[in-house]
Amino acid sequence: SIFKHFSIDNVLVFSFIVAALRWFGLFFAVSPAALLLLQIFHAVTYGTFHVASILYIDSLTPDETKTLGQAVNNAITYGLGLMVGFFLNGYLFETMGVFRLFMISSFIAFGGGVLLKCSQIMDRRAGGVN
What we know:
By secondary structure, the protein is an all-alpha fold. It has four helices and no strands. Helix 1 packs antiparallel against helix 2, helix 2 runs antiparallel to helix 3 and helix 3 packs antiparallel against helix 4. The radius of gyration is 16 Å and the shape is globular.
């Protein structure tokens, strides 16, 4: 298990950075082989993010509310998050085009990873566990 070697936070940061690289690569990709390789990155980011987010929520919630915590996590991530993401991406696709959308997606994913890493550093400085 990767979680024996890396913290949940670091796996989440990794998934954001790989997602940023994927979107950045899609901005430049022209060959089917490059597109296939970049889609493999998607499998990596989805798998690492999904499992790490489940473990992260599990670590934050008391035993009696773990199911509720997971339900809220999934509702926000795969409900609200996808809805907002699809709406925003559709708008950006129509107004800026697909390649600019890929670059913007890269910046958003990278920014998410940076924010998470900064939060992790601030938490450690404040004496937090993560």
